[in-house]
Amino acid sequence: MSTIKLKKGYDLKLKGGITQLEITGNPATSSCYGIIPDDFTGIIPRLDKKPGETVKAGEPIYHDKNFEKVKVTSPVSGTIKEVCRGERRKIEAIIIEPDGKDEQIKHDISQPVIDVLVESGLWVMLRQRPYDVVPNPDVRPRDIFVTGFDSAPLAPNLIFVMGEKSKYLEKGIEVLSTLTDGKVYIGVNNSEITISGAEVNIFEGPHPAGNAGIQAANLKPVNKGDVIWTLDIVTLARIGELFTTGIVSHDTVVALTGECVAQPRYVKSTIGCSISSLLGDEVKDDARIISGNVLTGVKVNVDSFLRAPYRQITVIPENNNPDEFMGWASLNPKRFSLYRTFTSWLCGKREISMDARIKGGERAIVRLDEYDNMLPMDIYAEFLIKAIISFDIDKMEQLGIYEVAPEDFALAEFACTSKLELQRIVREGLDRMRAEMA
Amino acid sequence: MDKVKPHFMPGGRLEKLQSVYDGMETFLFTPNTTSQTGVHIHDGNDLKRTMITVVVALLPALLFAMYNIGYQHFIAIGQPDAPFMTMFGYGLLALLPCIVVSYAVGLGIEFIAAQIHHKEIQEGFLVTGILIPLIVPINTPLWMVAVATAFAVIFAKEVFGGTGMNIFNVALITRAFLFFAYPSRMSGDAAFVKTDCILGIGEGSVIDTYTGATPLGQLATHVGDTLQLNNVIGEPITTCDAFMGLIAGSPGETSMIAILIGAAILLITGVASWRVMASVFVGGLAMASLAHAFPTPTYAASMLDPISQLCYGGFAFAAVFMATDPVTGARTRTGQYIYGFLIGVFAILIRVYNGGYPEGAMLAILLMNAFAPLIDHCVVSSNIKRRARRATVK
């Protein structure tokens, strides 16, 4: 066990954090559940179930076009109510109406590990670098990196979210170890956590220290030709549970956070549950509901569903209608900025309130070091971004595109003075690169 | 604003002014658009604020420039006891037309370019527009300022794609254009002190001992073994005077104190890179010390001690406000040290050993602007090589 100190990055102390590690209320029950194919980047869905057909919890509802054995499963038993399609008949959501019977699929765990994993639906919770997509089951990874904490703003405590499932961790490590010739690395943020069977490292420092990719970059970077897998510790425990009991558990603990949540808290729920079942009518119309954290989460509304990785909801003010007069001249210390061009730094570190406004127009990159200060990797982030924008494949490769995922750039996107959509740029770069290399 | 908005949208009567409308709207009100993709919260800082911070940092130098223009005028006409406000008022009236012309021409071109490209008006010229009056000699005719500004904005900036895309510092291109197109008006004894009266303020004729020569101008024409710099009426001056700034020179560059206040603002707010700023001074000191170690009357400036070298002329102003331009400078951290250091070295090298150019900072920065991408390329290459070595597959 070694300690790795990361200096770059920033911990945004937003209002609406959870103070008590306890689960409030009864498990939220939802009148329907939704699976969103966009959550599983890299998979082209081909439906296994049509609307009206019944499914059991853990039964596949669609598979990948390219790797047919990779499947996405239903979190509950019930009936397929609707398949929502968007432009060019792209599947946007699959909605399942529960029947309350709670019938579970039991997997035959004597089968080869990979086969069980892809069939169980847990496979799609893993990501591979390069490209930050669901892993190709035919490629053996160099190493597997598990992150034991989420460092994003208001993020839940993963050890708490994992709860009693932590007893399955060792089984999970044992299973994953058979899939790689290298090691299983686990990155944690405090030394009290002891896990045997894997190489545990302590990461100290601000967000994005909790990103598995950042941890990998600081332990053993992804080189050209390498493949690594990343996952979080909750998924690892689920894998362990699967290989102990033969059943995938779909229950999850969700952190309801953000300044627009009356009482930030943890609630028990199920993967794919509806947002309204979690928040009820607690949220006002002008609030922005994010499934996930403020940096990498997805904008949702009360009628839609909890998105992968199924553990956090953040609600912040949308605030899309104030005409802030000459905001660029503001001396208001409440206008938060990482930079000392505004006065917020004079007030020290305190909890801040942020709304969804972009607060500026898109510009060319002007300020120095903005991205580098937010990305604890040995990468010239600005040069990489420019290479991606100009889609210079050689340059992208040379500058380390294989090591990064969009989430690693989320903090830099927050900080960007020029208001560039870095995560989108990186995602598009990875997708095009992947298509080009295929 | 919202009432007149439809006229400016495509199809409206004034659609040709859409960029101007957008510019005014975002100037008056912070855009209330919210993020739709990507991160849901954004830092409060934007390019407008960044640029405004630089303008604020320039204010001490600007205000001091106004006072000093008046001060130089009144000592030239033998009235050193004129009231402070009269001196300041004189300087204000002398400098204001130049500021107005610089902004009007530069922003006018920016507005037109933005409309042609259907883009938002960008803020880069906010800083350039105030830098130009501070670095061109006060006696430059306004039409020259207008021509030079137009040349610089069009050919040094818009052809490259506007703010953030230019290779050379726009304000320095303006200065260089003037310097090479109208050399007789840009140096010598008649350029730097305004001697005529403005709107009845500062009437009088220059006294007999008046020369109007700047310290660096004197160095360039100096002969003999002993060096004594004088002010515009032939009285001796010291480095302390240069530090205070009550000497002749381009409006913004004279006062080290005002420049240092500006530097403090830039460094505290983090807008400018301390790496560049510090390494320019280090480079300048190193070269000045080297030159001073071998003083020779042929190159009179080599007789100046290193600290004085930094205080006289436009060196400090260039180090603080010009070299730190992030767009035209080196963008990697290691690159910033090299870039700054070489600017310092070249600025003093040109000043001391090239009689044709009494001030080297402008040319040094333009030269290094051209080399900045190469410096970055070398620094980034080391990262690329490190990554390639790690890889097992080629």
Folded structure, characterized:
The complex is a heterodimer of chains A (438) and B (394). Chain A has helices at residues 113-120, 158-162, 169-177, 212-219, 233-245, 275-279, 381-389, 393-399, 410-415, 422-437; strands at 2-5, 33-35, 45-47, 54-55, 60-64, 71-73, 78-85, 91-98, 127-129, 143-147, 184-188, 199-204, 228-232, 251-257, 265-270, 287-291, 298-300, 312-317. Chain A has 438 residues and is of the alpha/beta class. Chain A has two domains: 2-14 and 26-245, no CATH class; 358-437, no CATH class. In chain A, the strands form four sheets. In chain A, strands 1-12-11-10-13-9 form a six-stranded mixed β-sheet. Chain A has a five-stranded mixed β-sheet with strand order 15-14-18-16-17. A four-stranded antiparallel β-sheet of chain A has the order 2-8-7-4, with no helix packed on it. The longest helix of chain A is centred in the last third of the chain and has 16 residues, at 422-437. The model of chain A has no long low-confidence stretch (mean pLDDT 90). In chain B, helix 11 runs parallel beside helix 14 (315-322), helix 12 (274-293) packs antiparallel against helix 14 (315-322) and helix 12 packs parallel to helix 15 (333-353). Chain B has 394 residues and is mostly helical. Chain B contains 16 helices and no strands. Chain B starts with a helix and ends with a helix. Helices cover 60% and strands 0% of the residues of chain B. Chains A and B meet through helix 9 and helix 10 of A and helix 2, helix 3 and helix 16 of B.
Give the topology, please.
The complex is a heterodimer of chains A (438) and B (394).
Chain A: E1 2-5, E2 33-35, E3 45-47, E4 54-55, E5 60-64, E6 71-73, E7 78-85, E8 91-98, H1 113-120, E9 127-129, E10 143-147, H2 158-162, H3 169-177, E11 184-188, E12 199-204, H4 212-219, E13 228-232, H5 233-245, E14 251-257, E15 265-270, H6 275-279, E16 287-291, E17 298-300, E18 312-317, H7 381-389, H8 393-399, H9 410-415, H10 422-437
Chain B: H1 5-8, H2 18-28, H3 47-76, H4 84-117, H5 124-135, H6 142-157, H7 170-181, H8 183-186, H9 215-221, H10 239-244, H11 256-269, H12 274-293, H13 306-311, H14 315-322, H15 333-353, H16 361-390
Helix pairs in contact in B: 3-4, 3-5, 3-11, 4-5, 4-6, 5-7, 6-7, 7-16, 11-14, 12-14, 12-15, 15-16
